Every structure is written in C-alpha cells, then in structure tokens.
Amino acid sequence: TQDLEKEILWASPPTSGAGEGSLWSSNRFYNPYSDVKARNVGDVLTISVVESATASKNAETKTSRDSGVKGSWSGVFDTLASRWSVNGQKIGTSHQIDLGSSFDGKGETTRTSSMTAYITARVTHVLPNGNLVVRGTRQVRVNQENQYIFIQGVVRPEDISSTNVILSTYIAEAVIELSGYGPVSDKQTVGWLGRIVDWVWPF
C-alpha cells in the first residue's frame, strides 16, 4: 500500500490538451527553435519588390521598283502620228513610259522600367505541395497624390529568409501593379480632345 501511494505522489500530472479557443497553435509553434516564418493561412510576410525590365526593338524596311516601256509607231500609225500635233508640236513616232516607286520606313522603340518597394502580404491559401499563395496591397497618400501597390503570387516556404522576408524575384506567377492618381498623374495624361485628334489625324 505504501509503495502504491508513493507511485501516485511521484507520478507526473496528466497534461491537458488545448481547449477550444486556446491561443496555442501546434502548427504555428511546432518547433520553438525554428525561425518564425509565414506558413499558414493568415500569416504575413514582407516582400522586397526589386523589379527592372528593359526592352528594345528596331525595324527597317526599304523597297523600290522601276519599270519602263519603249516602243515606236510603224506603218499607218507612223503616218497618222506624224500629222497629229499637241500644242503645236507634232507627235513623234516613238514613245516611252517610265514607272517607279520606292518606300523607306524605319522604326525604333526602347522602354525601361524599374520598381523598388517593400510591401507586407498575407497568406491566402496553402497549396497541397506546401507552397503559399500570398496577396498584398498598399496605398499611400501624399499631398492629394495617391499611390497604390498590388502584389500577388506563389511563394515557396524555403525561399523565405529567417527574417520573414522574400524577394519579388522568387515569387512565381507574380502580378505586380503600381498605379496612382491625383494632380500630378492628371497632368501627365493626354486630354480627351487630344486623344481624339491623335486618333483621327492621318499623318
């Protein structure tokens, strides 16, 4: 009996499982020594947007064509032609027709764009292979000028750094949009009348 009482006294108390509504999350804190990274729906991570693109295209076309016809009148046509006159000058017995056309076209376009920004996104879905679908927006308003940033894509958890930051170049199927509206943006936009004139003007 005494031995049984000692076993009961020294036995460790049973651990109670996390109840409903508990702050404990076995998925989030499965390893206390691991880095805190986004891995579940609702988690957030910081995206460092570093994008740069340059595109250029050149096109040049040259065409030319020359043709000519030479001939002479003979027989009856020679006699008639010698009697006809235009503006007091007799028509000769020979004729010549020269035709020619040429085209020279050249076009060149170059476009360069770059974008650098930080934006915090939220995990919206976890794919069956463990990859994360993230989506983030940011709106900044300065002196009545609004700037809107949108980003969305698929992230591999192993590409997220220990500080919970990922470069935009590691995001698959990335959609990055930067837009703005306000007084400055309005001045940079061609008016409706100017757009109509550009569309109608043939030259």
Task: Provide the fold topology.
Blueprint: H1 2-10, E1 44-72, H2 76-83, E2 85-86, E3 89-90, E4 94-126, E5 132-142, E6 145-155, E7 165-167, E8 172-181, H3 183-187, H4 192-200
Parallel strand pairs: 1-7
Antiparallel strand pairs: 1-4, 2-3, 4-5, 5-6, 6-8
N-to-C SSE string, H for helix and E for strand: HEHEEEEEEEHH
Number of domains: 1
**Averaged pLDDT, please?**
73
How much of the polypeptide forms β-strand, as a percent range? over 45%
Uncertain regions spanning at least 5 consecutive residues = 4-14
Q: Number of DSSP helices?
A: 4
Largest sheet: 6 strands, mixed
First-last Cα distance: 110 Å
Give the proportion of residues in helices. Answer: 10-25%
Helix/strand class: alpha+beta
Number of strands: 8
Description:
The protein is α+β, with helices and mostly antiparallel strands. The protein has one domain. The protein has helices at about 1-10, 75-85, 185, 190-200, and strands at about 45-70, 85, 90, 95-125, 130-140, 145-155, 165, 170-180. A six-stranded mixed sheet has the order 7-1-4-5-6-8. Strands 2-3 form a two-stranded antiparallel ribbon. A hairpin with a 2-residue loop joins strand 5 and strand 6 (about 145-155).
Summarize the structure.
The chain has helices spanning 2-10, 76-83, 183-187, 192-200; strands at residues 44-72, 85-86, 89-90, 94-126, 132-142, 145-155, 165-167, 172-181. With 203 residues, the chain is an alpha+beta fold.
